[in-house]
């Protein structure tokens, strides 16, 4: 069985269908790509997989568990995390504080206990702090670790978003355009970080509009269009597929 498996997912918002029977799967240790035109339903699919809403129909399984109706927290606890297209986090808190906040998901009671001075709580807090420092170091955020998010560049905020996901010690990360709006040098740095995480055993799914980047990083690639899975294959198979080309042009060719 695949690590992540989505079957016949359907959902309408205010009676407007957005997911029209999505089938999607990612194998353990893959670096998968998810592409499709604007409005195809890619972020909405991530929202359903991560539990931001419960779909009208269909199933989502992760690591052998039916997670279709689980809370977002329960999914994170299983090792499934996601990043957001618009970087989130607490703008006035520092990078370190932002990372520590997400350790709570992991260590919840331990961190709470630390407020009351218990020894296990202190240990949990120290472990989380060490992890936050290690993640900041890995993402080369050391020099800005005590800066508030508002003082960071757009690209650095994207790195914090990835760091936040790593604090949950994930088995799999769903990335929603982590390089969008980032300069080419930092884009390559983020790509290198993602490759490193994948080499360390973290399964990755990447939504990205930059096709050369998808070609460089992802295999296989799934194409979503109008809330349906159009195809799944290698990057070369996807870009040479006529249905995919037509979906991107936004109009079906008339066949005489
Ligand atoms: N909560 C919601 N309420 C109403 N409509 C929604 C909601 N969430 C998504 N939609 C609609 O679903 C469609 C798909 O949106 P989605 O954000 O998933 O597209 P996308 O493939 O991620 O596009 P992009 O590449 O531009 O990010 C859009 O028409 C959007 O307006
Ligand atoms: Mg999107």
From TrEMBL:
<dbReference type="InterPro" id="IPR003593">
    <property type="entry name" value="AAA+_ATPase"/>
</dbReference>
<feature type="domain" description="ABC transporter">
    <location>
        <begin position="4"/>
        <end position="251"/>
    </location>
</feature>
<dbReference type="Pfam" id="PF00005">
    <property type="entry name" value="ABC_tran"/>
</dbReference>
<dbReference type="InterPro" id="IPR003439">
    <property type="entry name" value="ABC_transporter-like_ATP-bd"/>
</dbReference>
<dbReference type="GO" id="GO:0005524">
    <property type="term" value="F:ATP binding"/>
</dbReference>
<keyword id="KW-0067">ATP-binding</keyword>
<keyword id="KW-0813">Transport</keyword>
<dbReference type="InterPro" id="IPR027417">
    <property type="entry name" value="P-loop_NTPase"/>
</dbReference>
<protein>
    <submittedName>
        <fullName>ABC transporter, ATP-binding protein, putative</fullName>
    </submittedName>
</protein>
<dbReference type="InterPro" id="IPR017871">
    <property type="entry name" value="ABC_transporter-like_CS"/>
</dbReference>
<keyword id="KW-0547">Nucleotide-binding</keyword>
<keyword id="KW-0614">Plasmid</keyword>
<dbReference type="InterPro" id="IPR051120">
    <property type="entry name" value="ABC_AA/LPS_Transport"/>
</dbReference>
<dbReference type="GO" id="GO:0016887">
    <property type="term" value="F:ATP hydrolysis activity"/>
</dbReference>
<dbReference type="GO" id="GO:0005886">
    <property type="term" value="C:plasma membrane"/>
</dbReference>
